[in-house]
Design goal:
Layout lengths: L1 H10 L5 E2 L8 H5 L3 E2 L3 H6 L3 E4 L4 H8 L3 H4 L3 E4 L5 H13 L3 E7 L12 E6 L1 H11 L4 E4 L6 H28 L5 H29 L9 H17 L5 H18 L7 H6 L5
Parallel strand pairs: 1-2, 3-4, 4-5, 6-7
Antiparallel strand pairs: 5-6
Helix pairs in contact: 8-9, 10-11
Length: 279
């Protein structure tokens, strides 16, 4: 990912200095015009905007702690994956060393870096974000989520959950229709239309219900969904398709029903998910 970030800046003509703990990994960037720093201190000294992308926060501290004095007065954008709590703790480190801090979440894989349609989430110093928005646009669509540095990581985790759930549901459906000889490409054409149309509308409507804490069952209630998912479970079982996912979904719906939401919309499932953590 770090190489992809650097390459995007180089492709747009930005003078770029790179450093990697494994020097050979920077050779391809050097061939594209990057200056390869011999040390983190040399890399940090090269620009006012410093972007870090390493394995984890332990690795991040290993790199930046020895050059904290050099980072003073500069802006550090941290694209290292971690938890919201780690991002907040690191902001404390940055404040103590007079470093403007932005925590970043890259919502794409390396091939997507540089695509203006790909989201890059940032939270932390608003002044730093506004100062370097133009540079950050090189990487993708920069979205500022607020002064709390942990918010970008929080959104990252939540959106990945949506992605994995969607992928797994799509793969289960693909296996189901594939058992009857339907090509994945044919099924996916309809799945994309369904997700972008009806499902998109449901999400938009349910979001308002969640915010209000009211779940009018004027479309398809939880009770109806429980009955309907049995059709999926039976069809999959008849075709030898693994049913762990729909069984989990049904169990969650039944917990929601047992909590008194059988006549409510599917959005009421969030009450079971929240449990005692609701604020």
């Amino acid at each position: 990912m770090g190489s992809a970030l650097a390459a995007a800046f180089l492709d747009r003509g930005h003078p770029t200095t790179v450093w990697n703990r494994s020097p050979e990994k920077a050779k391809a960037l050097a061939e594209r015009g990057a200056h390869v720093a011999a040390t983190p201190e040399e890399a940090v000294a090269a620009a006012e905007l410093v972007i870090a992308c390493v394995l984890d926060y332990d690795a991040l501290h290993t790199v930046v702690d020895p050059v904290a004095a050099r980072l003073a007065g500069r802006t550090l954008v941290n694209a290292t994956s971690g938890s919201p709590e780690q991002a907040r703790e690191f902001e404390g480190w940055a404040d103590a060393h007079d470093v403007a801090y932005l925590d970043g979440a890259v919502m794409t894989t390396p091939p997507g870096v540089g695509n203006p349609d790909m989201m890059f989430l940032y939270s932390g110093s608003e002044q730093a974000f506004e100062t370097y928005r133009g540079a950050l646009e090189v990487l993708g669509d920069p979205l500022y989520l607020g002064a709390d540095p942990g918010v970008a990581s929080l959104y990252d985790a939540a959106l990945l959950g949506v992605m994995w759930s969607t992928f797994t549901g799509w793969l289960h459906g693909t296996a189901l229709v594939g058992a009857d000889g339907v090509a994945a490409t044919d099924f996916t054409e309809l799945a994309n239309r369904w997700l972008g149309g009806a499902v998109h509308s449901f999400l938009t409507r349910y979001a308002g219900q969640v915010d209000e804490g009211r779940y009018p069952g004027d479309d398809a209630t939880v009770d109806v969904q429980i009955a309907t998912i049995d059709h999926l479970i039976h069809a999959a079982a008849d075709r030898g398709v693994d049913n762990a996912l729909p069984e989990l979904l049904k169990a969650t719906m039944e917990r929601t029903r047992d909590a008194g939401h059988g006549g409510d919309s599917y959005a009421s499932v969030i009450e079971v998910m929240r449990g005692s953590s609701r604020v």
